[in-house]
Design brief:
mainly beta, Jelly Rolls, globular
Length: 155
């Protein structure tokens, strides 16, 4: 990871003849400040982009529970040693992980498969009348990154 306090925690998959289970986040995890709410976000189509926004106080924890997604994160904390650094991560239900996003880091994601479903856990309840959220367009960091981060790059 390039950004301080951002991490991708790979989760233990427990599987038996009935199916599988993975635990997404625990109140005792060292990066959890408090729980506010849990919600699900689904994209019916592949390559749907939902970006970018950041929070002043809210921590986000994301896990893809169906399909796959690409996450792009940009540190916008001027006092951070990783200010203006970028992380690009891929998460998939086939290798469960948790994306840890602290306040002050712009983040967005793009579904890589149809019917991608993300479980989102937030440290605070979303306040619709006074949201802790700053939004910018999905192409805002193209110059900083040096390419279109939503482009699929074949390797």
């Amino acid at each position: 990871m390039n950004i301080r306090d951002v991490s991708q925690v790979f989760l233990d998959l427990h599987e038996d003849d009935r199916g599988y289970l993975f635990e997404v986040v625990h109140g005792s995890d060292p990066f959890v400040t408090q729980f506010g709410q849990v919600y699900m976000v689904g994209d019916r189509l592949a390559f749907v982009v939902r970006a970018f926004h950041k929070h002043d106080a809210l921590h986000d924890w994301f896990s893809i529970v169906h399909g796959a997604a690409k996450f792009v994160l940009v540190d916008d904390r001027p006092d951070s040693p990783t200010y203006r650094k970028v992380d690009v991560l891929v998460a998939s239900a086939r290798k469960p992980s948790l994306i840890v996003v602290p306040p002050g880091v712009y983040h967005g994601w793009m579904s890589l498969e149809p019917d991608t479903l993300m479980c989102s856990v937030a440290s605070h309840e979303y306040n619709r009348s006074q949201p802790d959220e700053y939004r910018v367009p999905s192409d805002s960091f193209r110059d900083l990154i040096g390419y279109d981060p939503w482009q699929i790059i074949a390797r």
